[in-house]
Design a protein that fits this description.
This protein is of the alpha/beta class. It folds into two domains: 189 residues, 3-Layer(aba) Sandwich (Rossmann fold), CATH 3.40.50; 169 residues, Rossmann fold. The protein is built from 15 helices and 13 strands. It is globular, with a radius of gyration of 21 Å. The two termini are 17 Å apart.
Length: 369
């Protein structure tokens, strides 16, 4: 007996390329999801390789405008454009990526009888916590959704609180994943105490708190080295702070790398430093690092703790001294590093994107049935 083919309409209101964790995730996710036909709404420019993740990719033409006086007419124009796609495609379900952003609002107001599954990514939750208008938008999208998917129970609890505990029964936790088959485990295992070769990858902004890693290196007893890979508004400040601390020989900055190149580089490092200090929806890069055999030193946030359990080394978020102590302890205990590497590989195997795709498809099938 053949499986039912589901027609799914989804999208993210950004240039259609794997430029962030969310964009990388959806590219993997819909490629891995069985028995679906996915139409994705995005923005130009389009990465042609990434485009193949979907059966059909449509570029939105409505001029994008941020929250402010022009936001309401913008949402109206976007809703008209999206409504025409809903009518033409007639999907079985809509996956609204990000609760409370403009495209999810447009889906909500044009879905008609098509069931909506809202998918939270983290930036939407942070926006709702700091902005009354985006909080109201989140509540509107949540109310219109048959299910709300989050990657951790910690994020689900924050959404539940923001929406007044009105939609608790709609919240479903489906952990994110990565294509594990493509990961390559490092061949060099620790054999003695030595300075660590560290890597940090991600957007260089306030919440990611890369400054914690830079300042921690000025406090360590061993001359560990750190590669910072990524772009963002704090890049110049981080480079200046590195010079002020006399760390130019130990901290090196590199631009954002496509995932294939990042994955090629990961096995060359000893450990991954994760520094987010407030909210992290999941942290795919943590699993990427573990899948390549790296020890992970992470800021002890509820969602991250839920993902890693005892397979990484926690430190106090935003505290360079706490991180410095953790780095030195790992640097001088190679047997513990060996244990962490084995634990990391075991933990990474729990997060295969094929499992994410299967579970999201099963949820979609239940909702549409």
């Amino acid at each position: 007996m053949t499986s039912k083919l589901l027609k799914i309409l989804t999208g993210i209101n950004r240039p259609s390329a794997p430029s962030s964790g969310s964009m990388t995730l959806v590219g993997d996710l819909y490629r891995a999801m069985p028995d679906v036909h996915t139409t994705f709404l995005g923005r130009a420019p389009v990465d042609q390789t990434w485009k193949t993740s979907f059966d059909h990719l449509i570029t939105l033409s409505t001029t994008k405008r941020p929250q402010g006086p022009d936001f309401t007419p913008y949402v109206g124009e976007l809703t008209n454009e999206v409504g025409a796609f809903v009518e033409e495609i007639q999907p079985n379900a809509i996956h609204a990526q990000y609760l409370g952003f403009a495209l999810s609002l447009a889906f909500t107001r044009t879905a008609g009888n098509v069931p909506i599954i809202a998918i939270a990514h983290g930036p939407d939750v942070m926006a709702a916590e700091r902005s009354a208008s985006e909080h109201e938008t989140m509540k509107e999208v949540a109310a219109a959704s048959a299910a709300i998917v989050t990657p951790t129970s910690a994020l689900a609890d924050r959404i539940d609180h923001l929406t007044g505990r009105r939609f608790t029964d709609r919240l479903t936790v489906i952990p994110w994943g990565i294509p594990l088959d493509h990961a390559r485990v490092r061949s060099r295992l620790p054999t003695a105490t030595e300075p660590l070769s560290l890597v940090h990858a991600g957007r260089l902004d306030d919440n990611k708190s890369t400054i914690t890693a830079v300042e921690a290196l000025s406090l360590t007893r061993r001359p560990h080295h750190l590669a910072v890979i990524g772009q963002g508004p704090l890049r110049e400040h981080l480079e200046q702070r590195t010079i002020e601390l006399g760390l130019r020989d130990r901290v090196h900055f590199e631009p954002f790398l496509p995932r294939a190149e990042l994955w090629r580089r990961l096995p060359n490092f000893d450990a991954f430093v994760f520094t987010t200090r407030a909210l992290e929806a999941f942290g795919l890069v943590l699993i990427e690092a573990q899948a390549h055999g790296l020890s992970v030193i992470y800021s002890d946030l509820p969602g991250v703790r839920e993902i890693l359990g005892g397979t990484g080394v926690p430190y106090t978020p935003g505290d360079p001294r706490s991180l410095a102590i953790a780095l030195d302890e790992i640097g001088r205990d190679f047997q513990r590093r060996d244990t962490l590497i084995k634990a990391a590989l075991d933990n990474a195997r729990r997060y295969d994107v094929t499992d994410t795709g299967r579970r999201l498809r099963e949820l979609t099938l239940r909702i549409t049935s």
